[in-house]
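Might I ask for a little of your time on a matter of protein folding? The record follows directly beneath this note:
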Amino acid sequence: MARRVNYLNNKDMLIEIHRSKNSFASYLEKEHADYDLILTSIDKINVRTIAEAKRAKAKKQSNEIYEQAKANGKKVKQAECEVDYKKIKKDELIFRIMTFDHIPEEPGRKKNPKTEADKKTKLPFPPYQHYKFDENDNLVCVGKSHWVGGMENGYFSKDHGKATNKLAMMWMKLVDRYATRGNVRGYTYNDEMKGQAILQLAQIGLQFDESKSQNPFAYYTAAVTNSFVRVINLEKRNQNIRDDILEMNDLNPSHTRMHQGEWEAALRREKESN
């Protein structure tokens, strides 16, 4: 019997988000694409954050060893696969630095720019650079998002990447599952709500910030909820306009309007009788 695959879990979502963002980026070596710690500035790389990155890398390696052992049919305990973070060398670490340094400016994009992002070209997700220590203990840039080619002789590009097919499938499954909820499945424009939600995820799906949360499922669910509510409110507003026009022409409005009128009349009668 085939194992049922659960696409809607944070672990797999984070992997696909990472792969999707990597398609927009360029790295000196393939292994430079996997980061160990996210920081807001290169100045924040110090003794404390280096130790934090080592622990994160050790935990990641421990999980990989454990999963590989299970895949090979071995019965092992998680503790038996633990990697000592003290044995990890400093030059093995990759730091993701959130920065706009390599992003070109776009004057006039916003009338009153309030942040650095408002002054730069609009991007599908916040830009970053990857840094590591070289053999001389100097920090060197080994990767850039929204970039093609080498770190010194490459060029900016924001359109050459895309979300992975698996991540797109996750978005669609999430929307399909949400559309079956009792509070939305009865609407005749359910398909329109689903289409709006998928469009919204395609636009903001990669803007998820891994440095602030490890729960993309909640982030995507909130976006889907907002999309469904937006369509419902728009349809209700249009329906009210249609009902007003029908009543102005002495025609019967929709059943929803008539039921609402009957309900309000019943409340008034009950209030007057009391």
About this structure: The longest strand covers residues 139-145. Confidence is low (pLDDT under 50) at residues 1-5.
